[in-house]
Amino acid sequence: MNALLKLTLAVILFSTIPANAGEAAQQGRYQIVINPSMRADTFLLDTWTGKVWQQTQFTDMYGEPSVWLYMDRIDSDKQNDVWRKNHSSKKEVDEFEKRYQSKEKKPADLPTPP
Predict the structure, then answer these.
(1) Any residues with CB less than 8 A from the CB of 110 and at least 6 apart, and which?
(2) Using DSSP, how many helices (H) and how many strands (E) does the chain show?
(3) Is 41 contained in some domain?
(4) How far apart are CA 35 and CA 41, in angstroms?
(5) Is residue 55 in some structural domain?
(6) Which of 18, 65, 68 lies closest to 46 in space, CA to CA?
(7) Domains in the chain: how many in total?
(8) 52 is a domain residue
(9) Looking at residue 51, what is its pLDDT?
């Protein structure tokens, strides 16, 4: 009975290991994913957490630095509502600027776009 139990446990253990486990271990935690049709679509994927960053180049800065910019992920209506509350739309900022432009407000008093 003890030998049968050991055999059963061994079968269960080895059946849960993916066939490409060695391949997955060699790939590492972070993967760079590139869209072959669009060079600008370059992403960094954290395969453990699912977080994604997009490679972004700031062409309006000296040296045109390139960074990985984190991308928000929205999975529900509630998350969408919270995200929208934390980010101003261009239309809202434009309307705010027009409304307070005539009152000679300082630029620091205006909301900054995300």
Answers:
(1) 93, 96, 97, 100
(2) 4, 4
(3) no
(4) 5
(5) no
(6) 68
(7) 1
(8) no
(9) 92
